């Protein structure tokens, strides 16, 4: 509905309402027909459904089958251990899911509890949920607007719409008709649900309620925006499926081979051999599945989360840590993120051909400079507290800050020249006037938009004299205003005139004496320049998406080197005019989007995702929430709305772009460390599988029991893997290009490394079992194989610290957690050799020092060879 193009009379007729509002009967009828003025709550999945969903993973299914069968054949301990691990992982997953998405709850909280409206021709206060289309609602400063509507009255009304439009400055409102199609942020005759009245008063005719409001549309977008899996989640899920089914198939084949041998042997009692054959197959499944992988990944991500928290980035969803590491596009807001969110006067102009005039010493100022600063501080309702906090319009705060900076305390000026009368700022007049006694005369001081002020001036102050404002002088002032505006500056003009009486009216605001201009801007944060360079060097493209005007946005983007000479800047309307194909063709060139809508933001994010780019999106308002949810990683500002925070995966406590780049660095390190942990785990598991398969081929006894493998996978391996997750950041981490989102977790040298290390460990275990079978008993051979495997996997933590550097090259003491992990794991293995515990782990009492020494020597040799390979046959760094 283009209500902003229609007159109140047209809307009264269209909505079947009147200046006296709806009748109570009609309002009740409309509420019954269309529903209350509230956002409906989306159905949420039950805890049980979330819990059961966690058991869909093929690897989990294999383990469940193993655990159930073990329980049926009397292996209760192994079964209990597997069930415990699976349930703990499921509980953790359910908790994370439940915490993740509460955006709609926050949206509902934005509605005000009650509203003042006109019904039956009388003023009434009702709950905001009972407002119907056609109701007339009254507004005053401090009110939260409860519905969307067309203004029918406006008295100096200003509304803070930043949560919806992204604008940091309150919008001036008017009841005038707009003739042309206008972006939401520029519809000055409309008000929207969830925004706040900061000044003035007014009335509006309700045109939309509930989910039909702009805020309701945002809620629908949040619901429709898909939650993205992180690259690591996708890869682990894909790998889990393949590994799970492969292990199940392998176990079935192994059991079939064993069973075939038993049947061909014509054994009278096949029960015990079949059980042993099954346990052999179970051992393969347990050996191949890294049971603790999900828990280890969670712990490593948590460590990254804590590190990011110390750098002003709060992670709400653990996988977001890893996603940051693969980010290739950052769509960032401008205000407060790239800029200081603090309007600052940066230039001035007085009609004598000069700019940047003020010297900082008021005693040396010209008369024009003195008058200009008097007007700037006196036609001003803002103030500063003792602690430096400001209250008032940001542009007015900028003026008093500038006065203080010029060593002219604004409070002294106000105390010296008290206000005698005023004509408050009005959005239709676009100016403010006050009356003061200055230098023996009563003066009316005027501040406002340059176009308006210039049109009201007939004279100008030049070199201490008041002269006529000639067409040439007027042209010079207009040109200077355009110069400032083209540099993305917000410009205010200042004028005055002597008056005979302190009682003034709007009619007195004419024949003014022009004094000058002050130009201000929300300047970039100094540290952002370097951060953008770091992002570019890391192969990350920075895109500015803002609710601000295109000229301002493009100027800031160029200053920060976000926007190059050949890059494009589009408004939301220009983006709407592009077809999907035209957008995709030009996407790489568009670095600035201005005056955008929530739908625009989702479209931009979606376009980059279609190019397989991992996309981060920043935002702070309700209008940002859908895109924050749609993005691969949504980043909310700490000063933003609860809706934005709930829809995000990460929150910046300092609202600073620099913190995003730092978080990317941590994310890359976390992913690298997760890959190190995965390589460590699968190398050990591969070694165990190789040893089991070799024993099957040779018709040896299984080299391990299921409990031994569970102990290694869940206890012994977990601690070193976590220690690898604490590896410090590598020096070149931000000099690498973002990894491909389709990259396998075994990409690069990881698969080679796993195959090489796994084969080494497998050979060492086979040799150990062979020596045990050749010289001792089958029980001793199993104990030797177990010892070789556990020591090989424990020692492997040292070469696993780097794919290319030796432990000493990476700094042996740089990661003290690795040394601690080795000590703890050695101690845990020692527990399995204690009397009374040996039997549980199938280690006979006859297993002694000679057997242990042989196994330890073989295990140590694998570590030596792993480290020598890095020296003799180094892998290329990728």
Report on the structure:
The longest helix has 41 residues, at 657-697. Helix 10 (271-288) packs antiparallel against helix 25, helix 26 (706-716) runs parallel beside helix 29 and helix 27 (718-724) runs antiparallel to helix 30. The strands form four sheets. Strands 10, 11, 14, 15, 16, 17, 18, 19 and 20 form a nine-stranded mixed β-sheet that branches. An eight-stranded mixed β-sheet has the order 8-26-25-24-9-21-23-22, sandwiched between helices. With 878 residues, it is of the alpha+beta class.
Short description:
The protein is built from 31 helices and 26 strands.
Fraction in beta strands: 15-25%
Shape: elongated
Low confidence ranges: 99-112
Distance between the first and last residues' Cα: 55 Å
Structural key phrases:
single chain, 878 residues, alpha+beta, nine-stranded mixed β-sheet, 31 helices, 48% helix
Write the layout of secondary structure elements.
Layout lengths: L7 H7 L9 H11 L12 H7 L4 H15 L3 H25 L2 H7 L4 E6 L2 E6 L8 E5 L7 E13 L1 H4 L5 E2 L17 E2 L4 E13 L5 H11 L6 H34 L6 H18 L4 H17 L3 E3 L4 H6 L3 E4 L11 E7 L3 E2 L11 H12 L4 E2 L5 E2 L2 H12 L4 H7 L4 E6 L4 E8 L2 E8 L1 H7 E6 L2 E4 L2 H16 L3 E9 L13 E10 L4 H12 L3 E6 L3 H10 L8 E4 H5 L3 H7 L3 E5 L3 H13 L4 E5 L5 H6 L2 E5 L4 H6 L2 E3 L4 H41 L8 H11 L1 H7 L25 H26 L2 H18 L20 H16 L17 H24 L6
Parallel strand pairs: 9-21, 9-24, 17-20, 21-23, 22-23, 24-25, 25-26
Antiparallel strand pairs: 1-2, 1-3, 3-7, 4-5, 4-6, 4-7, 8-26, 10-11, 10-20, 12-13, 14-15, 15-16, 16-19, 17-18, 19-20
Helix pairs in contact: 3-5, 4-5, 4-9, 9-10, 10-25, 10-26, 11-25, 18-25, 25-27, 25-28, 26-29, 27-30, 28-29, 28-31, 29-30, 29-31
